[in-house]
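Late entry, written up from scratch paper. The run itself happened at the end of the previous shift, but nothing got recorded in the book at the time, so transcribing now.
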Amino acid sequence: MSSLNSHNKDRLINDKYSPLVSVIIPVFNDAQRLQICLEALENQTYPKHLYKVIVVDNGSDPDEDIEGVVAKFGQAIATSESLPGSYAARNKGISLVQGDVIAFTDADCIPAQDWIEKGVKHLLETPNCGLVAGKIETIFKDKEQATPVELFESITAFPQKQLLEERHYGATANVFTFKSVLDRVGIFDARLKSHGDVNWGRRVFAYGYKQVYADDTCVAHPARYSFTELYKRTIRLAGGFYDLQIRSEPSVFKQNLIFCKNLIKHLIPPLMWVYTALIDKRLNTIEDKMKVSLVMFFVRYVYAKEIIMLKLGSNSARE
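Output as recorded:
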């Protein structure tokens, strides 16, 4: 792999080579934000003839008209995947890839104009590169009147650099990789509705590939606005973690032990989280700090409730 990257780097420097890139976007009932995402991808600095956007409709309602939205953009094609879950949808996109490089983002993200160019550059310049995780910047509906949930997301959502360095994965809202890496380590676990990026990223790391954080490879992601939106995200993440543990640990005894540890952790008041919010300089006022602290309690106990329901036989949520 390192010799391939070295060769690609030399050719890129000599302006003789740029790889074909496939951008994969799963979407479920989010046509409005998908259109904004595709608008951002339509006029990238990367050569138009060298990238294609594959939009995978994961069972959206017919009135969303995902195909109609995609048809407006020359760089994009539409396909579908009936198996619920964004990782199943990403796998369908992977099956249609025809280039060397694959980029992942989400329908609610807004890639920077040079997103593809910068992501490819980091891939090619890093020997034995398995993945590049780019920056995910949260944005507000109204900077002057941010909701408590938006403030919470602004300091907690998508810490890509930390995720990569400490947990060896990047959120698939902004990840680049080589098709050859996927061929070797495998595709996503389609059974997971969340944490599939954790599972895949750790496999990439286990195979000895280098993982790179790229601050200049940026997408914007709207912060969740309401407690309803945050509730949905929290139960999805709880379900993804629960499913991942069940899949990775065959021993029922150890599964139960992990469950108990996780439950106890989430029943304990999040005092360390609150302390972190109180000293975080990104929160300008005491009022903002207190709002975020209350949201932290909400997230902690919603998570605890959800893993109890899963243990009692509920199915993990897809959104």
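Strands lie at 21-27, 51-57, 76-80, 101-105, 110-111, 129-139, 174-178, 210-222.
(Scratch paper discarded after transcription.)
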